[in-house]
Specification:
single chain, about 350 residues, alpha+beta, YojJ-like (1, Ferritin, DNA polymerase, domain 1, 3 domains, about 10% strand, elongated, binds adenosine-5'-triphosphate, ATP binding
Length: about 350
Amino acid sequence: MKDRDRAHFINNVFPFLAPGTPLREGVDNVLRARTGGLIIVGFSDSVRKIVDGGFQIEADYTPAQLYELAKMDGAIILSKNAQKILFANVQLVPDSKIHSNETGMRHRTAERVAKTTGELVIAISERRNVITLYQTDHRYTLKDMGVILTKANQAIQTLEKYKAVLDQSITNLGALEFENLVTFQDVSQVIHRVEMVLRVKRELITYVHELGNEGRLITMQLNELLNNVEQEAFLLLKDYVNDEQIDASEAFHDLQVLSERKPLNDDMILRLLGKARKKEDQDRTLLPRGYRLLHRIPRLPSSIIDNIVDYFGTLDAFSHASLEELDRVEGIGETRANMVKEGIQRVQEQLFIDRHI
Ligand SMILES: Nc1ncnc2c1ncn2[C@@H]1O[C@H](COP(=O)(O)OP(=O)(O)OP(=O)(O)O)[C@@H](O)[C@H]1O
């Protein structure tokens, strides 16, 4: 429930309430001033019905105005986009039969208004120094920036570890590919590690949204760490999918969606790759097409990589091809044939040095 609530606010509310936004600046000022506050963002008909008293303002929203108006009793109503302050000093009279778990009147009112109107309601506590968000039946207490930053940094450390493990298993797979020793289990192991990395990435993105402009450093670290993970995962699928049944981009999309829900198992991975589950297939060697390793050769355009794989079919075939055979591929002349041959050799040597047995 808590995760669902957090996700709801991060997706729908944080774009205009994250640190660095004018609304957050105003709300933080009210919190610091310890006057308390009750703010409704949106003035729909259902809000109109429960408004009693107060006065109309119709001014452009500024953090300073919000802070001044919060010194008064009652609620403040903002426009849906939080660009205007519409009313202040408003008494709200939601149906008292609506269940509320809150104790104080401000928070009970906030919860009931959110449930009846569906609008975002922000309660800033005078005594407890917390900001609570309500919308429909969702409730979320904003966390202290320090707490979120600590969690985000822990997640970055976890990501670094997972990424190192993933890199190593990709290297090991590459070495096995040159030896024609890859089985389904080897591919599945790499896919599981990609899945773990994607999972931590998703968690980190929620922290980044929650941190707003305080999350810039985390974003930079995240981008640097994940620089090529998605491309590698896509190429891995391109190397191994049963392409008569499944397109690699589709498989990559499915991998991302599935890993959001629950941990992948072997059956799911087999389905992703478009392969049937047959007992005898489990230990059979798989021959990769070689997209992933060809992409490691510097300055080799994707169109040429496609032509090489189309012509030879597998890494095994083109890694043993002579210069003359490589020369026959469309887009490859003598110079490029040399470059490809040397490139493949260099990639192979590096993999054998880096592999961890
Ligand atoms: N129905 C309401 N409409 C508008 N404002 C309200 C309403 N109920 C309470 N408030 C505002 O909340 C203020 C504090 O009420 P109360 O102390 O009972 O709330 P609380 O939930 O305990 O919040 P806090 O933690 O800030 O004390 C009131 O002075 C009033 O400004």
